Every structure is written in C-alpha cells, then in structure tokens.
C-alpha cells in the first residue's frame, strides 16, 4: 500500500470520526436555527451557512500553534507556565478569531442579532470539526484513546457552538445599536466561560468529574440564554435581510 493511499485512508477515517464527534453540535444548531425561523419567519441565507462553516474550519489554523504544544498531552498536571499560556493567551485569541469571523459574515449578509447568533453557531461548528480532527488524530489514533477522545470532543463541540452563538448575538447587537460594549460583553462571556472550562480540566484528581459537570451546567445555561434571546427579538428583527 502506497504512502498516498495510507494518507488518504487516514484523512478519510479522521474526517468520518470528526463528523461523528460534532453530531451533537449539529442537533444543537438545528434547534437554534428552527427556533429562529419559527420566531422570525426567515432562514439564515445558505451562502452564510456555508461561508460560516468553512471560515470556522479555517479559523483553527491561526489558533493551532497556540495550543498544539499542550493539546496532545491534555491539561491535567500543567505547569504554571503552560496554564498561564492557555488561559491568558490561547483562549482569548481563539474566541476573538471565531467572533471576528461571525462579525464579517453577519456584516456581509446584513444579518439581525439573531442572524449573527446562528451564524456564530455555524462558525463554532466548523471550528469544532477542525479542532476535533486534530485531537482525534493526536490523542485518539496516535495516542491510543480513540473512543474516549471522540466522546469527549463531542461534548466540547456543542460547547464551542454555544459560546459562538452567545458571542455572535452580542456582536449583532453591537452592530444594531452602534455600541462596541455589546460586542465586548459577548466575547468576554465566551472567554470567561471557556477559561472556566479549561481550569476545571486542569485540576488534578477531579478533572474528569469537574469537567463533565461544568460542561453540563454551562451547556444547559447557554442553551437557555440562546433561546431567550431568540424570543426577545422574535418580533423585532429577521434572521436575514432577504
């Protein structure tokens, strides 16, 4: 079997497993999308969906170098230097990159705040697919923990989607109100919650329980916030301009 064949096979396997790992996030997005459509009567433009997903996937590249050195080893038992590195530098950059993508897509398609939220969700989905692929390859296939990695990344995928949804909504509000503080608020929430998640994973001895418990609580809370925001603007805006 040639190297090219082996490489193609590996890419195919990683891609399939990555799709499996983001499937819970797909259901989350579908719920948010249909709720927005029911409240506003409009779908997010197809071009925005495709662009957001692809751009989200591409956003993995500028953030990869910030986390690649500790991503394969996991967060438990981090040194002080690496802990500061991922919490103070990597997390804000990751959330800002995703939020910037949502901003440009929302501006290009003239979306309402709800539209920005749904666009942000698709950015989070694309980002999750790319990031999960890296973890599945490094931790799962090469590291020998394939099943565990796929299951863990499936939780993180929904987490990314919800963070990007909240940030996207506030960016949309900033655009509508011409108040930058709204965008700062949304991105700050995404960064803070993301940091809290990483911190629970870095606590030796209770990492697994704390991490899963924190994810569950934040997942429910953020989903509730997203739905409330959709309802709040049900009669005031549209997901897309046409």
From TrEMBL:
Residues passing through the membrane, by range: 6-32, 44-66, 72-93, 114-135, 155-172, 209-227
Top enzyme category: hydrolase
The keyword Membrane belongs to this UniProt entry's keyword annotation: yes
EC number: 3.4.-.-
Keywords: Hydrolase, Membrane, Protease, Transmembrane, Transmembrane helix
One Pfam match: PrsW-protease
Record keyword Lyase present: no
Alphabetical GO biological process terms: proteolysis
InterPro entries with a match to the protein in the record: PrsW (IPR026898)
GO MF annotations, alphabetized: peptidase activity
PANTHER family reported for this sequence: PROTEASE PRSW (PTHR36844:SF1)
Protein name stated in the entry: PrsW family glutamic-type intramembrane protease
Lineage of the species this protein comes from: Archaea, Methanobacteriati, Methanobacteriota, Stenosarchaea group, Halobacteria
């Amino acid at each position: 079997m040639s190297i090219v064949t082996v490489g193609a096979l590996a890419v195919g396997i990683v891609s399939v497993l990555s799709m499996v790992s983001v499937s819970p996030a797909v259901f989350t997005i579908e719920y948010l999308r249909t709720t927005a459509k029911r409240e506003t009567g409009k779908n997010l433009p197809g071009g925005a969906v495709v662009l957001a997903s692809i751009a989200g996937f591409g956003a993995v590249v500028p953030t990869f170098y910030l986390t690649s050195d500790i991503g394969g080893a996991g967060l438990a038992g981090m040194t002080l230097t690496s802990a500061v590195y991922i919490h103070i530098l990597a997390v804000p950059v990751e959330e800002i990159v995703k939020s910037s993508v949502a901003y440009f897509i929302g501006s290009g398609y003239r979306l309402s705040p709800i539209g920005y939220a749904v666009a942000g969700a698709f950015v989070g989905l694309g980002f999750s697919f790319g990031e999960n692929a890296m973890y599945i390859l490094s931790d799962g296939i090469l590291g020998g923990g394939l099943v565990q990695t796929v299951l863990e990344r499936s939780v993180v995928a929904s987490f990314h989607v919800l963070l990007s949804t909240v940030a996207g909504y506030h960016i949309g509000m900033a655009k509508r109100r011409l108040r930058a503080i709204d965008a700062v608020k949304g991105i700050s929430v995404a960064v803070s919650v993301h940091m809290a998640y990483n911190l629970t994973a870095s606590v030796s001895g209770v990492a697994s329980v704390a991490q899963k418990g924190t994810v569950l609580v934040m997942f429910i809370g953020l989903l509730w916030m997203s739905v409330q925001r959709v309802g709040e603007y049900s009669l005031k805006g549209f997901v897309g301009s046409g």
